[in-house]
Amino acid sequence: MVRTALVLLLSGLSASAFAGSFAGTSAGASSAGSSGSSGSTSGDDKVVLQAREDAAGFVASDGRIRGARLEAALRHLRESNAAARDASDLEIAQAILAR
């Protein structure tokens, strides 16, 4: 049940909605300070997006290969999302890949 909710949550969100939901972005945040970015992703969202390759290795190795980016994304998601707190590392990695 938790896995289904997490997968639906991660896969059903656009990049900006994903950033707002998981990164804890504030409504008053300005894009003026992000001169080198597209403005559609926050720094926190990038933590999750950059973990895709590590997540793929983790899933493919049945949890034996754990990359630093995946670890950062797991920590970040569990700090900012209640559904992620109850999900296993494998479930979160699969959800990252599914979006």
UniProtKB/TrEMBL annotation:
UniProt entry keywords in alphabetical sequence: Signal
Protein name (database record): DUF2388 domain-containing protein
Any matching Pfam family: DUF2388
Species in which this protein is naturally found: Luteimonas terrae
Disordered as annotated region, ranges: 25-45
Extent of the signal sequence: 1-19
Biased composition, class Low complexity, residue ranges: 25-42
InterPro entries: CHP02448
